[in-house]
Q: What sequence folds into this?
């Protein structure tokens, strides 16, 4: 269920968590752990990066984040080198590459948002790898927010993720609404989702799921997600 590359990424997440760096994780690696914990045993889409949030009183320099990550890896005897390739800014995450120390080969990347609105989190444990990541409800809220606007056409993975989440998590309207409010998010009109199904299907058909990951029919994914988020859709 977990590839060798994903196992290494979970090792890094565990090392960061144990080091006490003010980082919480999000994205596909957390989604995978979240679904496995909840008993979802189908293979889901793979990823080649780690997504995270950094929270601190001050704004750290790129060097401060890089050295913190490197110390965490060294402390756990993970033989990788961290380098910054994109500094964070307004609406832009910091980008880091993690490379094999001996060969210099870049194995995966890490995107870190700095001091964004706080997220609801929980502790996950998958195959002995323990880390702090965004909660299932936070994930659901983030993905509903993304697909409520025309971002949906280049965030088709959020539709797929809501399909996965719908199989194991009940959607609690009041809880999701509270999370959206705390993060200052206002939902869009869902116009693209509701009224441009052909364009949506085109985006879905183009989206590649690597390996042996099963890709359901678009009609099944769309129908299940529409039913799952029905309480958030405009009442016509």
A:
């Amino acid at each position: 269920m977990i590839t060798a590359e994903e196992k290494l990424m979970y090792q890094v997440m565990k090392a960061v968590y144990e080091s006490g760096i003010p980082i919480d994780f999000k994205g596909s690696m957390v989604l995978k752990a979240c679904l496995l914990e909840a008993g979802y045993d189908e293979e889901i889409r793979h990823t080649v990066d780690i997504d995270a949030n950094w929270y601190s009183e001050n704004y750290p320099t790129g060097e401060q984040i890089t050295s913190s990550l490197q110390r965490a890896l060294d402390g756990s005897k993970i033989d990788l080198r961290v380098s910054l390739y994109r500094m964070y800014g307004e609406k832009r995450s910091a980008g880091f590459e993690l490379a094999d120390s001996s060969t210099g080969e870049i194995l995966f990347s890490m995107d870190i948002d700095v001091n964004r609105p706080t997220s609801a989190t929980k502790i996950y444990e998958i195959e002995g790898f323990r880390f702090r990541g965004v909660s299932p409800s936070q994930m659901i809220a983030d993905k509903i927010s993304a697909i409520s606007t025309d971002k949906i056409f280049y965030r088709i993975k959020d539709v797929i993720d809501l399909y996965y989440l719908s199989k194991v998590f009940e959607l609690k309207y009041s809880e999701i609404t509270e999370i959206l409010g705390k993060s200052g998010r206002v939902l869009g009109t869902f116009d693209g989702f509701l009224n441009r199904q052909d364009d949506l299907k085109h985006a879905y058909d183009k989206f590649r799921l690597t390996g042996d990951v099963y890709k359901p029919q678009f009609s099944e994914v769309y129908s299940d997600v529409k039913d799952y988020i029905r309480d958030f859709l405009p009442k016509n």
